[in-house]
Write a structure and sequence with these properties.
Elements lengths: L6 E5 L3 H12 L5 E5 L3 H9 L5 E2 L2 H7 L2 E4 L3 H13 L6 E4 L5 H7 L8 E6 L20 E5 L6 H13 L3 E5 L1 H29 L3 H7 L2 H7 L6 H10 L1 H23 L3 H11 L2 H5 L6
């Protein structure tokens, strides 16, 4: 897509949507960036922070934008994407940035304008939310997963690849079902673990001063994700419930193994289990494939 004169519409002016807008503005991808959000405060703050040029109602944004990026909770995005496809112009491009894909993929698979749509998941984020959390380097050196690329038009896919590059990301391709299963292990489980750890500590340690004084960097880093938005993550957990339940079963089984080894005082078994898990360091420190 020729960038000159391009109007980008961002639906959802939180961390992901706001950071996308800031970066696309910085690199000059769009001539104009407009936004929509359920919160008037978010719209006003986004205009104040120069994230968007103007806040619009959804219908007007859909009418004006050449490229629409949907960055809202996954329980609301499915219905919205169908509505956007219903009125999509010939070369209009609709991009979804949600972190579950199978449900949306099934809902739009046979839509007459399916080729206008590209399913994406930028693997980036922080525990913070709202437009004030947005920053233009959020996506640097991260991965953008693009799902079911064969169902998108060449024009739509080329535009998404250009946006991916402009955001500082590298693309990775897979189908929607594969995406949801993998992401349950490497992202969704991490958030559930963090929420559960935070909940457990709050329940068993009623003295908040003790938590503050005694919590080390290990606890802080592990429970960091528990600060994330429940409005965003509760729908993700229910949308990807089948995969998450499978993952949780495996996780709980491993917790039970550790519980048994500790109860038995089996230090040798604990050392062996932890040594085997140390291999995760080499996995995470691998150089990314180009």
């Amino acid at each position: 897509m020729e960038n000159k004169g391009v109007v980008v519409g961002i639906i959802g002016l939180g961390l992901i949507g706001g950071s996308t807008a800031l970066r696309l503005r910085k690199v000059g991808f769009a001539n104009r960036i407009v936004g929509a959000d359920h919160s008037n405060k978010n719209i006003a703050k986004s205009i104040e922070l120069n994230i968007v040029d103007e806040g619009l109602e959804l219908n007007e944004l859909a009418h004006q934008a050449d490229v629409i990026i949907v960055a809202i909770p996954v329980d609301a995005s499915k219905k919205l994407i169908i509505e956007l496809l219903n009125t999509a112009r010939k070369n209009q491009i609709i991009i979804d940035f949600g972190s579950t894909k199978s449900s949306i993929a099934q809902a739009v698979r046979n839509h007459k304008n399916r080729s206008n749509y590209v399913a994406c998941h930028p693997i980036a984020g922080t525990e913070n939310s709202g437009p004030t959390a947005a920053f233009d380097s959020l996506f640097n050196e991260k991965v953008n997963i693009i799902c079911d690329k064969e169902l998108s038009s060449n024009n739509a896919l080329d535009t998404v690849l250009e946006i991916t590059s402009q955001l500082g990301m590298r693309p990775k391709f897979m189908n929607s079902k594969e995406h949801d299963r993998h992401i349950a292990y490497v992202s969704h489980l991490s958030h559930i673990s963090s929420f559960t750890l935070g909940q457990t500590v709050l329940e068993v340690e009623p003295n908040e001063e003790n938590i503050f004084d005694m919590a080390g960097s290990g606890f802080e880093s592990t429970v960091r994700l528990a600060k994330s938005s429940p409005s965003m993550w509760a729908p993700i957990f229910t949308e990807n419930s089948e995969n998450i339940i499978e993952v949780l079963s495996a996780y709980i089984a491993n917790l039970e193994k550790y519980k048994l080894m500790i109860a038995q005082g089996n230090e040798e078994a604990l050392r062996k289990a932890m040594k085997q898990t140390n291999r995760i360091r080499t996995v995470l420190e691998k150089e990314p494939l180009s």
